[in-house]
Amino acid sequence: MSVHTSENEYLQLLRSVLERGTVKEDRTGTGTVSTFGYQMRFNLNEGFPLITTKRVSFKLVVSELLWFIKGDTNIRYLLQHNNNIWNEWAFKKWIESTDYTGPDMTGFGLRSQSDEAFNVLYLEQMDLFKQQILQDEAFAEKYGELGNVYGKQWRDWKTSQGESIDQLKDVIHTIKTNPDSRRMIVTAWNPEDVPRNMALPPCHTMFQFYVSEGKLSCQLYQRSGDIFLGIPFNIASYALLTLLIAHECGLQPGEFVHTLGDAHIYSNHMEQIKTQLAREPRELPQVRINPDVSSLFDVEVDDIVLDNYQPHPSIKAPVAV
């Protein structure tokens, strides 16, 4: 039975880019079909917007978001929570270093998809890399670090005076004390750090909060979005951030508004998307937050519970690095 939920906003984005997108080259060499400027709206009272037309790992969404909130920029915390979504960027730094003496891993992202023998080697080297990150603190400090990515900018933005701004803490304070403010913004795009100190320039560049009638809404501006793999995570992550901040501030959730710059489908995701679009959305799940945790900064993975998530099966697809 077909269920009408806000998931249709996402499915309509897939259809729109497939039908009207422009073929473009990209940094990874994979090739994309792309649209510029697109907006989706998710009513957070209709259920939690975790895509049901394929399984999305909520555990990975939670551990990555808490990693950002903690201001952490090292993949070690993620690996401790069995979260591998940032590994490739740290691994790239390792294999390009003079300390690396293993087999040639140049262009591992594309090569591992087309060369089975190479893929075996790549998986072996990645596994060794992960074990070293987990077991060797000095190695993790050197090669697990991604630079001044999201968590750093959210929690410890460095000013030209050498001071530190905790944007996330400040925005929560403003929501509590001046909810009609139009300046409740957190930005991850630091023009000085982008070319120098980031493994990957932030795709979700800034977000803004809005309080109305006792409800907290959030709008994200995302400069670049991998529609099949990345955007379902981004929707769930910022919807969850909105719920967590609403929980701390004693507000109800409102809307999550997702505004995209370059919204693209990678050329090697086309078949997967056709599979997904042939499926009917199911009822959205619900999220429960431990009522005993009052501060966003005290939330741990076990304080967030997902109820009634009954998605269609996963659809595998390669990541472009």
From TrEMBL:
Catalyzes the reductive methylation of 2'-deoxyuridine-5'-monophosphate (dUMP) to 2'-deoxythymidine-5'-monophosphate (dTMP) while utilizing 5,10-methylenetetrahydrofolate (mTHF) as the methyl donor and reductant in the reaction, yielding dihydrofolate (DHF) as a by-product. This enzymatic reaction provides an intracellular de novo source of dTMP, an essential precursor for DNA biosynthesis. InterPro entries: Thymidate_synth/dCMP_Mease, Thymidate_synth/dCMP_Mease_dom, Thymidate_synth/dCMP_Mease_sf, Thymidylate_synthase, Thymidylate_synthase_AS. GO terms for molecular function: thymidylate synthase activity. The active site is at C203 (nucleophile), C203. Residues 9-321 form the Thymidylate synthase/dCMP hydroxymethylase domain. This is Thymidylate synthase. (6R)-5,10-methylene-5,6,7,8-tetrahydrofolate binds at D226, A320. It catalyses: dUMP + (6R)-5,10-methylene-5,6,7,8-tetrahydrofolate = 7,8-dihydrofolate + dTMP. PROSITE patterns: THYMIDYLATE_SYNTHASE (PS00091). DUMP binds at R27, R182, R183, R223, S224, G225, D226, N234, H264, I265, Y266. Pfam families: Thymidylat_synt (PF00303). It is found in: Cytoplasm. GO terms for cellular component: cytosol. It comes from the Bacteria. The lineage of its organism: Bacteria, Bacillati, Bacillota, Bacilli, Bacillales. Belongs to the thymidylate synthase family. Bacterial-type ThyA subfamily. Pathway: Pyrimidine metabolism; dTTP biosynthesis. The keyword Methyltransferase applies. Its EC number is 2.1.1.45. GO terms for biological process: dTMP biosynthetic process; dTTP biosynthetic process; methylation. Homodimer. Keywords: Cytoplasm, Methyltransferase, Nucleotide biosynthesis, Transferase.
